[in-house]
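FW: tagging you since you asked about this chain on Friday. Here's the raw sequence from the shared folder, copied in full. Didn't touch anything.
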Amino acid sequence: MSRVEDVSVRARTRMRGFNAAVTVCGLLLTTAIGWSALASDAVGQISTSGGVTTSEDFYDPWENPEATAATSDGDTWSGRGQQYIPLSGLTPGQPLMLTLLEDSEISDVFLTEGAAGDSEAAVSFDSYSDVGHYLIPSASETTLWLRVRTADPWSVRVRPAGLEERSGTVSGTAPQTFVYTGPATTARVRVSGRVAVDIITENGIEDSYLRFEDESKSIAWGDTRAAVFTMDSAGDSSWSIEFFEPAPEPTADSTPDATPAPDATPNPTTGEVADE
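HL: got it, structure written out here
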């Protein structure tokens, strides 16, 4: 064999060895990536089964089949991620007030009837109003769900709102929140200046921050046991809201009796009956 042929053979041998090494390294890298993906998926499953989930895991928190409850200390509840708050012994239609504590952050608030998992018909009570989150339960047993973006701890307080009940025509020159429990589902709002109106019913947010400026306009909302109105005015603005309550239906007791006809008196001389 010539020297040139010997060099060529050695070069081909080295090339085959290099190709084999590259192939082996590629297989090892592919295997490592696969194991990493499986490990990541396993971690995600552990996080989910532990109940600490965020909106990245379940955008609708009630869809988590293994959701866990927050812990309570009286009317204060503490949790992490999208843990839920079970509420019982409520009066349907009585407004509740949700207050965030310790710089807790949430992106939405929901109620479902019954215990956790009983219903997926969730009602949103998120509002742009700065006065807080008002909730109106439609059942004595209700589950409160929080949509959050992180697994950070949070604390909230849930208690009866204790709002003043108003009806007829309500007016003011300052911000005011009150509850209406009458039969009306329409009203007339009159504004001088600038005023925003928030309406919350058992159906959730009816209208969030309706804005009025020097105008008179009718508004409407759905049937509900109660409606929370927040009138948010600024500066020298004034406002009034007149609830259009239907006239009461007449009843048998309220129908006036027919006036009895006067007794006929005979003429003492002729005996004829005279008209009175």
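FW: The first strand starts at residue 71 and ends at 73.
HL: agreed, and The helical segments are 3-49.
FW: great, closing this out.
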